Amino acid sequence: MTAAEFREHGRAVVDWVADYWERVESLPVLSTVPPGAVRAQLPASPPESGEPFPDLLDDMDRVIVPGLTHWQHPGFFAYYPTGASGPAALADLLASGLGVQGMLWQTSPACTELEQHVLDWLAGLIGLPERFTFAGTGGGVVQDGASTAMLVTLLAALHRASDGQVARDGIGSGRYVVYTSTEANCGFEKITRITGLGSSAVRFIQTRADLSMDPEALRAAMAQDVGLGFTPVLVMATVGTTSTGAIDPVGLIGPVCREYGAWLHVDAAYAGVAAICPELRWIHAGVAEFADSYATNPHKWLLTALDFDACYVADRGALTQALSVLPEYLRNGASESGAVVDYRDWQVPVGRRFRALKLWAVIRWYGAAGLREHIRHSVALAQQFASWVRADERFEVLAPHPLSLVCFRLRGDDSANHELLDAVNATGRVFLSHTKVRGAFALRLAIGGTATRREHVAAAWALLAEHASIARHRLGRGDQIDAVSPEIG
């Protein structure tokens, strides 16, 4: 593809994406194609000769778009968002065009130094302490997601707990254990398998009434393990759990970690960026005093698009010592001087993309004020939705909702809630998900999409209210309660 051809087709791609964003609301949120339908439309063999690029865009419309669940649809409420935005998409194009491989400072100084700088910016915006920045003893690194952040911080914690033995000899006969809440991200158990600890090394700690980790239950579990000869390695506290948005009391968990010498990792994948708003910075209580590592995902709620996790450590030495392997062909004067950061030592892969361009573009386009406005807009919509749910006697809210997730259900048994969820999702206008809260089936409505506005949340509530009557009537629970009918617009 020549430069002239790239210009021509590049403009067509940008137009296609812009058109997609403008029309996505008219599409059904949840894909309706049956299994195998997408592959059935693709040729059995790759083309022998090259094809015109416009044919690919035609197939995007014909084959790909019908097989998508549209995460950028304003009625997408099923999971925490993946915040695509114009600045992020254009920065992704820049990164792909540059084709930088930023494994070492030497292989592209700007790739490394922009990443250091923009993550220091983010740390300041969300109120992280200086020790998590490059002005202190730690620093930030872009990972692909929160699970990878868990993995590398667990490796650092194992390195510290074993005085480097795990990096040299493996887990071996070490009796190591890790802890997290019963509400925590399922990725935590997966990374214990990857590290070789195994699922049996995980202690799931019970929660309090607000679904946050119980610090006294944690202390009791750690005391019991130490008594049995186990070594507590790491505790993962969560700021905004996947299921219900619960916020663990880091300020109470931290002293327990110190008492037993365990590394404290704070997984704030969804909620951490909310601390860009001063009135929401309470979610980080205890992080500055006690956390050894911290991670949040701008690709969820901060308009930065997949994949971008900001992972911070207070002691960069523990991380790099756990992960550094230096072959002769990567030796260079800059690295040996100790004056630069080589991000290959901060992650699992050796190679890395120029992801920092995305967050740099987003912060520069929206500014801190614009990002705060986006977060506040989402939180306000969630509180409005929760008020509509509470005003309708058929429904109940099942969990605290200080941010942008609301967990709720129809009063009664689970069957009506299953039917309600299936019915509203079948309309194609919205997509909600479910969870279980203290054993009860609950619907989840998560707000935060780039294009979601009040009218979309109001329309979701109108659908829920309408189909709730149908579901209850079918199950013999008809009622005369009038639902709250918000003005749409």
Automatic annotation (TrEMBL):
- Specify the taxonomic lineage: Bacteria, Bacillati, Actinomycetota, Actinomycetes, Mycobacteriales
Q: To which protein family does this belong?
A: Belongs to the group II decarboxylase family.
For this UniProt record, give its keywords in alphabetical order, as a comma-separated list.
Aminotransferase, Decarboxylase, Lyase, Pyridoxal phosphate, Transferase
> Per its record, what are the GO molecular function terms?
aromatic-L-amino-acid decarboxylase activity; pyridoxal phosphate binding; transaminase activity
Organism, scientific name: Nocardia gamkensis
Which residues carry the post-translational modification N6-(pyridoxal phosphate)lysine, per the record? Answer: K300
State the protein's name: Aminotransferase class V-fold PLP-dependent enzyme
SUPFAM superfamilies on file: PLP-dependent transferases
**GO cellular component assignments:** cytoplasm
Cross-referenced InterPro entries, in alphabetical order?
Aromatic_deC (IPR010977), PyrdxlP-dep_de-COase (IPR002129), PyrdxlP-dep_Trfase (IPR015424), PyrdxlP-dep_Trfase_major (IPR015421), PyrdxlP-dep_Trfase_small (IPR015422)
